[in-house]
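To assess whether ligand presence alters the predicted conformation, the chain was also submitted together with S-adenosyl-L-homocysteine. Input:
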Amino acid sequence: MTRSPTYFIKTYGCQMNERDTEILAGQLGVLGYSPAGRDRDADLIIVNTCAVRGSAEEHAFGYIGQLKQLKDANPGVRLAVAGCMAQEPGTIAWLKRYADHVDLVFGTHNLHELPRLLDEVEQRDEMLIDVWRTAGEVVEHLPSRRNDGVRASVNIIYGCDKFCTYCIVPFTRGKERSRDVLPIVEEVRALAAQGYEDITLLGQNVNSFGHDLNPPQDLSDLLAQLETIEGVRWLRYTTSHPRDFSQRLIDTIAASSKITRHVHLPVQAGSNRVLKRMNRKYTVESYLDLVGRIKAAVADVSLTTDIIVGFPGETEQEFEETLRLVREVRYDAAFTFLYSPREGTPAARWEGRDPVPNSAKKDRLNRLMALQYEISLQANQALVGREELALVEGVSKKNDMVWAGRTHSNKVVLFARHPQDDLIDRFVPVRISGAKTFYLLGEQIGGPLARPSSRDRVELPLL
Ligand code: SAH
Ligand code: SF4
Ligand code: F3S
């Protein structure tokens, strides 16, 4: 008897890429493949790439380069490159020139063609490149292989039409396409029946959900509908664009016990001139007004953001306006990035004419991070004494007598572990007893919540 073939998928980038990996894995499962723990044990290796910043691309290029050794040692192994980088002409040129050990290249718009593409690879000697320039219709009912925990992600909208001038995503993911409400509701219902209690709705801009459907739909209504599904305990969504964050959505979150009180609201910059050049289509004033309305309506909201420093032409004074905004909003956490020019975007052309010197970029990033760390610590200290539910993710990496979990607002919380208890994937009540910059300390104050009654998980949910 021949053994079943195995695969290994290396995933870079955002949660949408992770979700795509689950769909690739699901299709491979249907073809009879099983997962390999390591790349060197796999018959098929797929590199699911991210193009959002130069650093992400360099990691993927480095890994693709390393795979040559595996291919030389075992010419039977099949190597595929997928994801956002595959949508870029520059990547294709690089692969042709430096990576002829790669067998297959496909993009973000034809994931669902994987079975056919694998067949076709066997018919030819040279690299098969099949990348669609534009997105087709949304494809439903693809198999997927999710992990065994209680957290699951569900796509609600693909692509992005915002064209922020620094960003490659609209080019790699295409125009905005919402899924219909019905298949989303069915998917979440099926997930809840299988014991997934923590559901995250995904999109590059979830606030635009449904605006392209006929009749138009709205994220608030979708959330309100999903909230009624039994077995769903926590409902998250990411990412929100500040421009489309409606008062209705704020009111829906405020009225809900399941929708996360964590709002990730990327601001990118705190200067109106920079925001305009970024094509973000909001002002510092309108952003602060939105933040004020969210804070007023949603008690104990946790706010996080993304900020880019060193956008072409950013002056010291404009950067200081970003610091001022950070001091005013007092985010719980911020993801901070050095501007990275992306070929084909308008800002990459400006970078040629008016770059911020590297030393200034790094100095600004350090100052911004120092300020944010101070604020994060204070925000966490303010939670001491509060009772929270922690969803236990596992044993702490540093100390095996400690559980690591996450609160409703997505903060890491560490608390003592009794070796006889198995609390992984359970919701446990804790009282916050201490605070650090990047996590909370807690004390368990009760047993884990009962699991929902139904939990008949099948190996390969066909969703
Ligand atoms: N759709 C999300 C963001 C997706 S990309 C949104 O609009 O909020 C995640 C983050 O990467 C962005 O928020 C931005 O801060 C950062 N980013 C995107 N392009 C970048 C670039 N060229 N250089 C540096 N950071 C970038
Ligand atoms: Fe990129 Fe802007 Fe779209 Fe976010 S909203 S994915 S930053 S273009
Ligand atoms: Fe990266 Fe593509 Fe996501 S560029 S951030 S993997 S949409």
